[in-house]
Amino acid sequence: MEPRRALIVDDNAINRELLSFVLEAVDFEVHTADRAETAFQFADQFRPDLVIVDVQLPGMSGLELATRFRNQPNGKRPCIISVTSYAMESDRERAFAAGCDGYITKPIDTRMFADEVLRIMSTRANPKVVGASA
Question: Measured between alpha carbons, how far is residue 40 from residues 47, 58, 72, 85, 92 in Å?
């Protein structure tokens, strides 16, 4: 069986490393990017099953990136999960409107993160918000 592929897009190196560690522990092949523009170009060759994206990125926002993934005509679209410190209901609604399948608020619980990602991937039609304010 081919490993699941994840792309983590966050401008904070510590966040990228932490999320990579958690997902690699549940057998994801993980690649990272610090900018949305780089991530979108890289994903064209890498073909991730999952994209974890921070909302607030330099240049193109994480929500703009989610919309671009959702609108691409070729191939299988990845599951997109927003991981953000924005915890208001309106932020959650904007993330889902942009095309995110899930929304996890920071700070993340590393003991639960992988399980929640797998749950969102398996139930993409029925997303929910989790995290500190959920």
Answer: 10, 14, 10, 22, 22
